[in-house]
Automatic annotation (TrEMBL):
GO molecular function: DNA-binding transcription factor activity; sequence-specific DNA binding
Stated name of the protein: AraC-like DNA-binding protein
Organism: Crossiella cryophila
InterPro entries assigned: Homeodomain-like_sf, HTH_AraC, HTH_AraC-typ_CS, Tscrpt_reg_HTH_AraC_N
Top-rank taxon, per record: Bacteria
The entry's keywords: DNA-binding, Transcription, Transcription regulation
HTH araC/xylS-type domain sequence ranges: 189-287
């Protein structure tokens, strides 16, 4: 049995019968029997491998398609719109995910010594084909699920190895920035956390620049380089995704939900929501709930 075939078998067994990704043991496995609607989320730094089927993630105008044997790597918190694009009942989408840990990457950088790749100038998200060494490490981690004691003892070492494989792979320059305290990516990650803690407040870019110790022009240039959008655009994406999730899970009046995420104008909220998700809030959420009912 080749590596991808065994990965498919193990993920299907682990995730069978669960409508949601399983997040135990420090990693994630997911199985989905059909294509899904585009849904927004704030993706944290992570490695996401497709083992069967295909997925699409969109950041602003950038679209990332990844299929079996390919992976997505995200290195700062990004407001993505993602969907499974290929899945059937007989060949479900199967995926594996691992959060990327800054402390692990920093320690690996120290252990590796000098000779680091040049830091990436691109945005903080990329798709690549998984090499054999990376696939082997993921498979060995999943094999440990046969023995919970082995997983507890040996799992951390293999998760560390997966980090190393990413740090020495096609996106080495991007991944290694996570562990560098003075990297551009780390500085923009600080700016992102600042926005996240105040997403429902008026964003003054001058205040943000002062808080992280950059000039406004440098902040805007670096923020756009890392996230493909300006700080104000990032905040808008974050607000609208939080509003959509709130409407879908908790309900409430559209105007009240818009106000709770920072919109003083209900009409502006509905207009920007429609522009981002393709339909007004009430219509969009009614459609999504209907789809969920059909799936269940």
């Amino acid at each position: 049995m080749d590596v991808l075939a065994e990965l498919r078998t193990r993920i299907h067994t682990l995730a069978a019968g669960s409508p949601h990704p399983l997040r135990d043991n420090g990693f994630i496995v997911a199985s989905t029997p059909e294509a899904t609607e585009p849904l927004g989320t704030v993706a944290e730094p992570a490695f996401a491998l497709v083992v069967q089927g295909a997925k699409r993630s969109t950041l602003a105008e950038h679209v990332f398609e990844y299929h079996a044997g390919e992976y997505l790597v995200v290195t700062v918190d990004l407001p993505l719109v993602s969907q499974v694009t290929e899945a059937t009942a007989t060949q479900p989408f199967l995926g594996f995910g691992l959060p990327l840990d800054a402390r692990t990457i920093a320690q690996l950088l120290l252990d590796a010594g000098p000779g680091h790749p040049t830091p990436s100038d691109g945005i903080a998200i990329a798709v690549n084909t998984a090499g054999q060494a990376l696939l082997d490490a993921v498979l060995r981690l999943l094999r440990l699920t046969d023995s919970p004691q082995d997983l507890r003892v040996l799992g951390p070492a293999i998760r560390r190895e997966i980090h190393w494989r990413l740090m020495t792979g096609p996106q080495a320059g991007l991944v290694r920035q996570i562990g560098l305290a003075d990297s551009r990516l780390t500085t923009i990650a600080q700016a992102i956390r600042w926005i996240q803690h105040r997403f429902d407040q008026v964003l003054r870019v001058d205040d943000l620049a002062e808080a992280i110790g950059l000039s406004v022009s440098t902040l805007n240039r670096n923020f756009r380089a890392v996230t493909a959008m300006s700080p104000v655009q990032y905040q808008k994406h974050l607000r609208l995704q939080k509003a959509r999730l709130q409407l879908l899970t908790a309900g409430g009046e559209v105007a009240a939900v818009g106000h709770s995420v920072g919109y003083d104008s209900a009409s502006q909220f509905s207009r920007e929501y429609r522009r981002m998700f393709g339909a007004p809030p009430g219509q969009d959420v009614t459609r999504l709930r209907g789809l969920a009912t059909v799936v269940e």
